[in-house]
Amino acid sequence: MEELGLVGDLAIVAAAAVVGGAVARLLKLPTVIGYLAAGIAIGPHTPGPSGDIDDVQTVADLGVALLMFTLGVRFSLGELREYRGMSLVAGVLVTIGMLGLGTLLGVALGLTTEQAIVAGMVVCISSSMIAIRVMEDSGLIGAPGGRITIVVSLVQDMLVVVLLVLIPVLAGEGDDLVAEIGLAFLKAGALLAGIWVIGTVVIPPLMVRIAASRSRELFLLSIVALALGTASLSFTAGLSLAFGAFLAGIIISESEYAHRTLVEVLPLREVFAVVFFVAMGMLINPDSIAEEPFLVFGIAGLAVVGKIVLLTASGMLFGFSARTVLPAAVALGNMGEFSFVLASQAVEEGILTAELNEALLASVLLSIAVSPLLFLGHERALAYAQALPGLRLVLQSPAAAAIPDETRLVNHAIIVGYTQAGREVAAALEGRGFRYVIIDDDPMVQRRLKSQGVPAIFGDASVPAVLEMAAIERARVCVVTVVDPAQVESVAATARTLNRRLDVVARGLKEDSHVRLRELGVSRVVQSEFEVGMQFVRHTLQRFGLTSQEVQALLLRMRRDRLGEAEPDRP
User: Fold this and answer.
1) What is the layout of strands, in order, in the sheet containing 456-458?
2) With the CA atoms of 449, 452, 453 and 459 taken in that order, what torsion angle do they form, in degrees rounded to the nearest 10?
3) What CATH code would you report for 61-272+293-349?
4) Where does 499-547 have alpha helices with state H?
5) pLDDT of 59-82, one tens digit each?
6) In 318-348, which residue ranges form alpha helices assigned H by DSSP?
7) What is the pLDDT of residues 83-117, one digit of tens each?
8) How far is CA 336 from CA 52, 58, 153, 314, in A?
9) Single pTM value for the model
10) pLDDT single digits (tens) 183-234
């Protein structure tokens, strides 16, 4: 495809991605695995048609920037600020811990001290692209575990500045390490401060004018220019493209154009993100794995297992339950895009040989390929571990109640998860004077509810003892609003076991989740897209002249056919 150049390469990538993604869906695997496999198939290390990896990698960088930009648009600083303490400490501790473990393993495998330290650097950085995509696909990106994933990824991107400065020092070329690190952070801080000032002072009025032009293409071009421009400036400062793009997204998230931005950019993001995953697969050289199996599997195994253990332990020390922090730990249990940058610089400095570099890159890509597969089984692994006597007490977070003395839990509602939906239910009950208690295992929510004097229990609602603390045997209804599908099912099953007469309302997150939840005894399944559709149907039919009674009857039939609800809502 030399004649067509980049167009031909992207044609190959797109065709391979369609096949790989379709096969992965048929096998009920994450589509990321299909895209990686497609990359291996069209890579230069396997027979058959192949694309130019350099051209494809350049386009793949757009996927990284746009993914982090849209992620920043979806979150506000307020949402992430609560997790800064835990994630900052956890990110630093896990990075330093993995750097030390990777260095020790490298020495044990016969590498020189300098080469072992570089191996530790490669090990300690996770793939923010893979981690965030996995969390998005599972629907957990808005949960506490998703926020932990985001902030830890950003912390690691910041620490890469230090690692890049250290590599010339290892090669004997650095003069004053402290001064060089300080200068790198000073330049990065000054540039990011400038970006933030421009983003908060210049961009808002500019966006107002662009939006007023009513030109869709002009709005999209402006957004893309902001995302890629900020990402490029961040890269110039020694940080990552991902960090700068995320910062640009945060700027937009604070404006009135956040929703419109997501609508315009998401289709573009999906295309380039797929190119990134295929590009990762194209880099995998099966021969490297065969030539240095102990090094490749040893480094990859250490990165995966070490990060899962260290990050889970760090999160639990800060009060998060294992159920909350384990998905983030598994999603980050890999090595990342910056591992390639660190290894490449070490080759340029003469620390790594070409053969050793290939082996390290093979271990990076192996960890990236394994990470989504491990995520599929993390819920089952946690359930198995919690069933073991030796680990039950370690993995089970302690429960605590903060219920005012005047609150009597009789004929009350139990709200599991202080999400947006949970807050709406609590506000409605509060307004009518009905009793309720909230169960949540997020320590950030714990502090907030304590300060507000809201009746709450802090713990994992899937544990019978926690529901018993909420007087479930005397409750009237249990509303499960958490966004983790496995936790929804676990809580619903436990609640119905403890109180067979209890009315359980649960969030349905998967397309066919209502079937499983109805089997568990859930009285009402609330699926967000379906509920939104019902409101559109209600308004549209009323505009066509149908009476409220006719519309209500139609909606009840739709609920019965779609969700299996046999009887109407009770007042």
Assistant:
1) 400-402, 456-458, 436-440, 413-416, 477-480, 503-507, 524-526
2) 0
3) 1.20.1530.20
4) 513-519, 528-543
5) 777 777 887 788 778 766 666 666
6) 322-331, 337-348
7) 666 667 778 888 899 999 999 999 998 888 889 99
8) 21, 16, 10, 20
9) 0.75
10) 666 766 776 677 777 777 777 788 888 878 778 888 888 888 888 888 888 7
For the beta carbon of residue 464, count every other beta carbon within 10 angstroms: 13
The Cα–Cα gap between 115 and 356 comes to 9
Contacts of 459 (CB under 8 A, 6+ apart): 321, 397, 398, 399, 400, 439, 441, 465, 466, 469
User: Distance between CA 67 and CA 134 in Å, rounded?
Assistant: 12
d(CA 79, CA 556): 37
Helix %, strand %, coil % for the chain, to 5? 70, 5, 25
Q: Which of 538, 540, 539, 534 is nearest to 560 (CA)?
A: 534
Distance (Å, whole) CA 125 – CA 343: 12
Write out the two tokens for 30.
Answer: 């994450």
Range list of H helices, 198-321: 203-212, 216-236, 241-253, 258-283, 286-291, 293-317
How is the chain split into domains, by residue range? 61-272+293-349, 398-526
pLDDT at 490 over 80: yes
CATH fold of 398-526 reads Rossmann fold (3.40.50)
Beta carbons of 207 and 257 less than 8 angstroms apart: yes
For the cut 80, the answer to whether the pLDDT of residue 298 exceeds it is yes
Taking the CA of residue 200 as centre, how many other CA atoms within 13 Å lie in the half-sphere pointing to its CB? 9
pLDDT of residue 11: 85
State the amino acid at position 256 in one-letter form.
E
Q: Number of C-alpha atoms within 13 angstroms, CB side, residue 385?
A: 15
Q: What is the CA radius of gyration of the chain?
A: 26
